[in-house]
## 1
Amino acid sequence: MNVKELNPDTSPQAAYGAKLRSLREARGWTQDELGERMGYSGTHVSAVETGRKLPTLRFSRSADRALGTEGTAEAFERQWREIRQGSLLEGFPEFVGYEGRASEIRLYEVGVVPGLLQTPEYTSVIAESALKRGAITPEQADERVRVTAERQAALRRTRPPLIFVVLDESCLRRPIGSPAIMEAQLARLLEFAELPNTVVQVAPFDMGERRPFSLPVTLLTMADRAVMSYAESAQQGHLERESTLVLPILTAYHQLQAEAPSQATSVAMISQLRKGTP
């Protein structure tokens, strides 16, 4: 029998197939035998192993149950999510996992409204722009819109996190999409500010050198009070857990909040912009 050689370094999908084959062969099972344990045909297992068919969430969970990898670092479900989120920056899926469990979230954004506060239409315009530039595929554009919606849904839990947001004034004044889309986005910010677990502030242009950050930053406080920061470059996202590096960022964020106008003043500014008042 000719066995197709697999190079797990060529793509996440190839790595998935190579690991599936390796664990199956380690147990001495044929593709048919593994398929029977998973509820799939041997042909289907073969197609996933050789990269001819993309794995699904159901397939991955079945593989985890059959091979005993459920809930482990080697879980196929975890690897499937990495494949599915291939359009996202390296490091971002890991960050999203922590974000969905954080008890406190602190955001500072420049230029665009952060994803957690975006309307679907605003998110779609940004994704479509990247698509038109040829930076991503249609599938990846859809993925970005879906992930943003999932992130927002994950925060509407029984005990939602405290969310502190400081927006650079450029987030409000940079037009994204049509005037109607921007009007709806500003309305969304006003609704967000009314929630009992949120604080929204605007860092105006005239803060000048008193603004401690020049780039976006996110800080997550977990249930055990551990704090981590997340930042992105053009190529990847970086999640920092080392307290000696994170605590100075947290201190700077508190300074930013102290320097920025109050939520009441910030909300009034957003309302004026929404109405078209200078």
## 2
Amino acid sequence: MAKIGVQAMMLKQHVADRGAYDVWKQLAGIGFSVVEVSQISLTPQTRDEIARANDEFGMSVSSISAGMGAAGGGGNDSLRESFDKIVSDCQALGANRVRIGMLPVEVLASEESLINFAKDTNEMARRLSDHGIILSYHNHHIEFAKINGRLILDLIKENAPDLKLQIDVHWVQRGGMDPVRTLNKYAGLVDLVHLKDYRIAVPPAEAFAALSAGDRATWQGYWSNIVQFAEVGQGNLDFAGVVEAGIDAGAEYLLIEQDDQYGRDIFDCLSDSREHLIGLGYADLL
């Protein structure tokens, strides 16, 4: 059965300040049992704290994060430079999944460099599979740009047949595509899903005050940021459809993520997302 959990990227500062054990304990206290680790440096201490929390609170790690650049990016290790460590981290945490959070942006310079990246990633997927580890690729919106009439995501998949996908439904929407149809399109290739809502926010009062005062620059700053990351259920996406399509597509884990909380406490945001999913009838997946 698929499980719903939390993507821990939003918690990296809490981990830095309080340690992973205490953060995982708080997640368990609000009803989560699965965590994806990203942008949290897996030092021996942090790795041991997560393993301890898993044992004490009945939690598990769905996946850890890595990059394909010379450095992993975002605080994650590089598969090119730290392959053995990444395998060791998975084994220590009982995780059999690694996800690439983003491609190195320089590979977008040409179709050739993008295809070479995909082929290199496919080779990494094969190497990880020898250790019983699945490698997935996480999309943003850039993957729905076209090169010579082909979606970048399709070019990656064509040249990396051993690579699974982690579909982030917010970024699918921001890329001009429909999340449910996209999950349906890649059914059988989807291993992980990010549950992240897509909200259009009305500019606040201070934006209109700036507009009235003729301060176009301040107004434009607000107007340029009306697309927001939102708690599940606080935006425009159909999450009943998303969850069902994700499960049908083969996802083993569906992970709540919210890149920006706009001043709210992240644990309150996660609780709200969890409650919305329970209200949709998915308590058994938590």
